[in-house]
Amino acid sequence: MQILLTGKNGQVGFELQRALAPLGHIVAVDQFDCDLSNQNALRRLVREVAPDIIVNAAAYTAVDKAESDADKAFAINAVAPGVLGEEAARLGALVVHYSTDYVFDGAKQTCYTEDDLPNPQSVYGKSKLVGDKALLQSIEACLIFRTSWVFGAHGNNFAKTMLKLAVERESLNIVADQFGAPTSAALIADVTAQIVGRYQRQGQMDFPCGLYNLVAGGETSWCDFAKTVIAAAHQAGKPLKLKAENIRPITTAEYPLPASRPANSRLDTRKIRETFGLCLPVWQEGLNHVLQEIL
Ligand SMILES: NC(=O)c1ccc[n+]([C@@H]2O[C@H](COP(=O)([O-])OP(=O)(O)OC[C@H]3O[C@@H](n4cnc5c(N)ncnc54)[C@H](OP(=O)(O)O)[C@@H]3O)[C@@H](O)[C@H]2O)c1
Whose alpha carbon is nearest atom 42 of ligand 1? Predict the structure, then answer.
């Protein structure tokens, strides 16, 4: 089984190299091996590797930068998934891809399901939504995992930024009116591998392909997430200036950023849990694993 993995150095891509290893031979690429904004190079890569499975963990994820770099964000997030779908369809391959909570405007009061109508408010969210649709239109054999608030030991993320700031700062103001589930890259990779393994055993016929929300259990705000990270770091004996009680809640309006973020990023995971018989651990479990690795 030949697996083509893009974005190998990203948070999710890094974990996928580990999780997918038992399933086949992985050809893992970064943007220097193949720039996803170059359609011809991407088609050439897929034809050369001739994979049975393509896992696309690459994306333009600089949410604020995307506001002034829309062409690049769309080339990578909106166009490339459709190109991968077209090439995979020629080969009879499966495509696995990742979507985001940023496709929603966040106005819904309860968790978003896969059937809720997206209404992205940022260039990043718009580009990712076009990519989801392009993939779904180009190939039936695809799995899209929609996730949120990704963190991991490898790569840049909110939890690691908090730990860095906590070395120098005695207090921090963090947004407390956006809610979601911090989801570890390892969980995303492990669930991906579990479902891809099942696809390998079961085959394409009648496999429940399509879009699935995939986030850890529970929910929190960025402010409480930060407090949990810093409290755990103190408990692990890390010498930090910042104490959890000195992380102060602020509103989104008090911390303006170029890209608008959804106030409600909560995703309903019933579909993936029931379809594949999965149990998704609470986000604190993933955080503990990551902190054990990096502290
Ligand atoms: N991070 C989140 O909070 C979050 C939330 C919801 C959904 N998602 C989705 O989850 C997936 C994985 O995200 P992640 O957090 O693992 O992202 P990440 O850590 O930012 O990794 C993205 C990867 O894409 C690569 N990349 C960027 N531009 C490229 C290009 N032109 N050609 C080829 N590769 C390129 C990057 O390469 P370099 O390392 O060389 O820059 C990086 O390895 C993405 O689809 C993302 O949209 C993420």
Answer: 10
Q: Please give the Cα distance from 13 to 211 (Å, whole number).
A: 19
Q: Do the beta carbons of residue 51 and residue 2 sit within 8 Å?
A: yes
* Nearest-CA residue for atom 40 of ligand 1: 31
Partner residues linked to 165 by β-bridges = none
Find the 228 Cα to ligand 1 centroid distance in Å: 25
> What is the rounded CA–CA span in Å between residue 82 and residue 124?
16
Ligand 1 atom nearest the C-alpha of 150 is 3
Cβ of 125 below 6 Å from ligand 1 = no
Taking alpha carbons only, the member of 163, 121, 153 closest to residue 252 is 121
Task: Say if residues 142 and 209 touch (Cβ distance below 8 Å).
Answer: yes
Can you tell me the distance from the alpha carbon of 131 to that of 103, in angstroms, rounded to the nearest whole number? 11
pLDDT tier for residue 78 given thresholds of 50, 70 and 90:
very high
* pLDDT band (50, 70, 90) for residue 204: confident
Question: Parallel, antiparallel, or unpaired for β 2-6 and 53-56?
Answer: parallel
* Residues facing 96 on adjacent strands: 55, 143
pLDDT, residue 73, reads: 98
- What is the Cα–Cα distance from 162 to 183, expressed in whole angstroms? 16
Domains in the chain, CATH or no CATH each: 2-157+181-218+266-281 (3.40.50.720)
Nearest alpha carbon, ligand 1 atom 29? 31
Which is the closest atom of ligand 1 to the Cα of 58?
24
